[in-house]
Amino acid sequence: MGMTLVEKILAKASGRRSVSPGDIVMAKIDVAMVHDITGPLTVKTLEKAGIDRVWDPDKIVVLFDHQVPADSIDAAKNHTLMRRFVKKHGIKNFYDIREGICHQVLPEKGHVVPGTVVVGADSHTCTHGAFGAFATGIGSTDMAAVFATG
Question: What residues have CB less than 8 Å from 96, skipping those under 6 apart?
Fold first, then answer.
């Protein structure tokens, strides 16, 4: 029997001819997204681990969409932390306040295309599967590993 769309995407992303249910797959990530709620823990995890560079700043997307405008001093500090991180690492795919919601911005700006692997530190990331991508939500600490290694 042939592979499903997800199996084809994961096989390609892992450099394998095929994958099957139950396989452990080490897939290369095409897009990694964090927002203003999940991004700060990702950044703090990287810093705590002593990691001072990201694997590919062109594949990282950072958005502010959950606490816009900042609704507390802590939220404002998180925005500042993320802006510094974006600048330090040369992340060009940064969408500041008033750009939109992450799940709408990613496809509108061309970050989600068919056949790609998309991870986001948000449980609704799987909605990008509607665009023919493999998309899943992961936690902030898992995202730190993605930012470090791809």
Answer: 64, 83
